[in-house]
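Worked example

This section walks through a single chain of length 445. The input is the sequence exactly as stored; nothing has been trimmed or padded.
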Amino acid sequence: MNLTVTPGAALRGATRLPGDKSISHRAALLAALAEGESQIDNFLISGVTRAILGALSSLGVGWELDGTRLTVQSQGWRGWRPPAAPIDCGNSATTLRLLAGALAAAGMPAILDGAPGLRARPMMRIIEPLQQMGVAITGDKGRAPLRLSRFTHPLRPLDYTLPVASAQVKSCLLLAALAAHGRTTLREPAPSRDHSERLLRSLGIDITTEQHTQNHLASPQYLTHLNPPCPLSLPPLRLKVPGDFSAAAFIIVAALITPGSQVTLSNVGLNPTRTGLLDALSAMGARIHLSATGEQNGEPIGDLSVEASSLRGVCIEGSLVVRMIDEFPAFAVAAAYAQGETVVRQAEELRYKESDRIAALCAELRALGVDVEEAQDGFSIRGGVIPRGGLVRSHGDHRLAMALAIAGLASQQPITVKDAEVIDESFPAFGETLRNLGGWLSLEE
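Given that input, the structure is written out below as tokens.
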């Protein structure tokens, strides 16, 4: 499918966003590890979350969806059964990496595989530390498919420094640590999103965090009468997922760059490990008003009011890169419309996402007439010249597709995004949301 966005219409009104992708992923998996019935409201229904739900089915975990309410029926660790076939994780690295940690904790043999894009993602960052814990796991030259064989519990506790700040790697190891006998300590070079820690704490797991980069998970209680011994199952979840900040990022930037726009986003997750984009846009001169409204299951939430703004170039590097790692496609569009030069450094991790986001962003923005220069660890954009419009490619990357689409709201001519169906991976209501706010969009084969 091709998505065409035509410039000329201001965005106005209020909207709610789908449930947070990261929290939805983690909540579904923890519900499967819990014993009893869990209910998760405002669950994100998209390509990547269908991957985790399909994985749960293959492990014998029952679930059903009623609108956006997910109900999971599970017998805990002991109720899982070995899958009859390799588990297809689609293009979702979150599904594969978190599931590897949960399978390690459950002592469950399985093969984890996925789409060609997922097979290209680096997996030694979870294979090596899991092997140190005693998990029988191997990969194909450090990549998927991953194979887990039967092994004995308890696992060895881990004292480990992550080579990169990665919430996926950290979450994988925290899940495996639920089956380790002893204190596990994980250190990161910079703070990454902490949804897993917050959810585990809400379920009574003893996790302490120091200086935002060091997590300690105490030895859980064991059912020693079982053979092999098994960790105590988690209690059921009762959870409402806040609106996805990463989805909000596209609407925020769309409103900032489109003249005359004024948009309000309600019930957005405002976890400080996720909101680096707000700091970056504020430094660019963006008019964004944040109103905190409370917490949901330990996650801060609030409303955002956004007005069209004159933006200026900035430099992004250091810990801010980690706090906005998924928002760089949207941020790059804001930089293209800003006056002056924007420089992004120390962001080489972008090369290991659904696409090589540095190369893909630079290539497609250049095709729209944007003055952009690629570097190994980032890029620079000299903004202020309105993109001319034209045909661009999604590169099979949902965030790149949405970023290029919003660029068409204020470009000289319409922008058509080829293979835009990939947007359904994380934000199926993206087009509908923009239309409801007044955007001019069309979708055709």
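What to look for: The radius of gyration is 22 Å.
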